[in-house]
Amino acid sequence: MDKIIQKDLVIIGGGPAGLAAGIAAREAGVEDLVILEREHQAGGILRQCIHNGFGLHRYGEELTGPEYAARDIARAEELGLDIRCDTTVLSVDGDRRVTCVSKADGLTVYQAGAVVLAMGCRERPRGALGTPGTRCAGIYTAGAAQKFVNLEGLMPGKRVVILGSGDIGLIMARRMTLQGAKVLACVELMPFSSGLNRNIVQCLHDYDIPLYLSHTVTDIRGRERLEGVTVMRVGPDRKPIPGTEIEFDCDTLLLSVGLIPENELSQRAGVALTPATSGAVVDDDLQTSVPGVFACGNVLHVHDLVDFVSDESFRAGRAAAAFLRGETPTGETVEVRDGEGVRGTVPQRLRPGRDVTLMFRPAAVYQNASAVVESDGVELARKRALVFTPGEMVALPVKAEKLAGVHAPITVRMEAAKHD
């Protein structure tokens, strides 16, 4: 390393979030930018998601994951974006200095005018669950199994139990069935699924795969290779109920038990995080607590649709471009809080007087209910639906005229239907 390379914008991550941020920033006039991606090619997790269902909101048609990614990659190439693959970012500091390493360039340090964090998320592993039993082969995260099957052409096993009903786990239930495996059950700790309803129908119901709600795996058997698991019902306190044991003879256990934003680099940069999402605290420009550092996509909060990731990341790219031009709005911001039945509202701060869309997940299943935005007892926005579920993110627009003059904290809450 002979010198520090000056860049107007450095984007960390070349998945759908990083690509969208880069495209938007270039279209907004940022010429000197680089996208750093640790995998050998851009596209992120979409490369292994060969099922369709992507792009309905953005393109009005169903695409597979690789097809969706290919459109952004083609646009990035058309714009001449500098995408450095096989490049691992080691650190980001509060002065927007990015240190990375690659086989091609060795150790490189970029001094950025602005940084967009788009590192995505990772799966929660078995070690985070504390499930008793042996450390035998045959236990995989659902995403790892998806990579084996779809990219490597390898089958993890033949008799499968899936713990957790996240979307990747549901999709892998169908995928493993189509590849000839027998999926014995999908087991969910909560009394509701954490996946999209369409995936429950298309991936479980259509293939007669049972879904055990309010159940969990309490024991793992096998020495060299997994031989079976014990499943038990749990009570309202989520503790197993004695006498409810169900034994499954299986050689594979797939874990679909949650996603965690990849925020180690954010922490090193001094970015404030929130336990509600495990992501950064941002304003309505998606700027973090560190000036000039923006966050978008699954590193900010875990999305259910990539279309929403792209839309959010386009905004982050445009906001970064505005920051470089010295056009970032200043002035008072108002705190946005989670109210009853709401978790992980983004953004957590906003500037009154501009249109904003608040995104969050309900904490439980609500039927014929409303999501309400209010400040100091005054209702600012309301969205009613027949059903709200934790598996589907809620987007709630709030008009600028409703926010004008607001100074008290804003609360987002769920309101159950009233009956006469």
Characterization of the model:
By secondary structure, the protein is an alpha/beta fold. It has three domains: about 5-120 and about 260-325, 3-Layer(bba) Sandwich (FAD/NAD(P)-binding domain); about 125-255, 3-Layer(bba) Sandwich (FAD/NAD(P)-binding domain), CATH 3.50.50; about 335-415, Immunoglobulin-like, CATH 2.60.40. It has nine helices and 25 strands. The strands form six sheets. Strands 1, 2, 3, 4, 5, 6 and 17 form a seven-stranded mixed β-sheet that branches. A five-stranded parallel β-sheet has the order 8-15-9-10-11. A five-stranded mixed β-sheet has the order 20-18-25-22-23, with no helix packed on it. The longest helix is centred in the C-terminal third of the chain and has 19 residues, at about 305-325. The mean pLDDT is about 95.
Summary tags:
alpha/beta, 7-stranded mixed sheet, 420 residues, FAD/NAD(P)-binding domain, 25 strands, 5-stranded parallel sheet, 3 domains, Immunoglobulin-like
- Shape field: globular
Name the CATH class of the largest domain: Alpha Beta
**Mean pLDDT across all residues, rounded?**
94
CATH homologous superfamily annotation of the largest domain: FAD/NAD(P)-binding domain
User: What is the gyration radius calculated from CA atoms?
Assistant: 22 Å
- Fold-level CATH name of the largest domain: FAD/NAD(P)-binding domain
Compute the separation of the termini in Å. Answer: 73 Å
Named CATH architecture of the largest domain? 3-Layer(bba) Sandwich
In oligomeric terms, what are we looking at? single chain
Secondary structure tally, helices: 9
How much helix, percentage-wise, in residues? 10-25%
Return the structural class.
Answer: alpha/beta
